[in-house]
Amino acid sequence: MESEASEDHSQIDDQGAEAAFGSPFAYCVALHRLLDGGLTDLSLPAQRLYLQLVRETVGRGVNQVTIGMAQLRRLTGMPNSTLVRAFRLLQSKELVTVLDPGAPGKASTYQVELRRAAPPHRGQVVPSIETVLVSLTEEDRRDLLAMYRHLPVSERQAFEQAALQDFHSLGLQPDQPLLRQAVLYRLFAERFGRARRQRYPQLR
After folding, report:
1. Could you tell me if 121 and 41 are in contact, meaning their C-beta atoms sit under 8 angstroms apart?
2. What pLDDT digit, counting tens, does each position of 169-188 carry?
3. Could you count the other beta carbons within 10 Å of the beta carbon of residue 96?
4. Which of 26, 66, 86, 164 could make an SS bond with 109 (beta carbons 3.0 to 4.6 A apart)?
5. Is the sign of the CA dihedral 170, 176, 182, 187 positive or negative?
6. What is the pTM assigned to this prediction?
7. Rounded CA gap, 84 and 90, in Å?
8. 3-class SS at 154?
């Protein structure tokens, strides 16, 4: 006979979260609760990154980890831009905090919170940088690249600094190809004609 109030297997209470740091069994229980619905408000890449960070922290008895993008790419199989989106979402949910943003050649340090995720968000999914650029018609992509190439040096530097600030706020150090993609994305959003942007309702 079923009980009147069934247990929510996606919840991790304070006691369970604390125990997970020192008990392999409690850690396993916490992972099962996350997989049973505790991460439903996250995108699949964010779930993959979060579980990896939980393994690198809680699974080793600590709540923070120093790790670089190259290692995260290898462990998760995801490219830089996907990791950037995943980090942004995890930070917005207060599941990951940047303790040290790192620097070129120096890994970043993150603090990971083990807790129940917020209720599922039903809003629009923000497309990745690659999705935006690949979705453009050949003509629009050519014109966007021409716009990028003809930017005055001062304007290009301003776009790059704005993009770098976004990356650094996530504790990330982008390589040059990823930074260029971020600038192209900003150009599309800020400088492309309104009528041409309206061709891509899925990107708004």
Report:
1. yes
2. 666 677 787 788 788 888 88
3. 27
4. 66
5. positive
6. 0.56
7. 10
8. helix
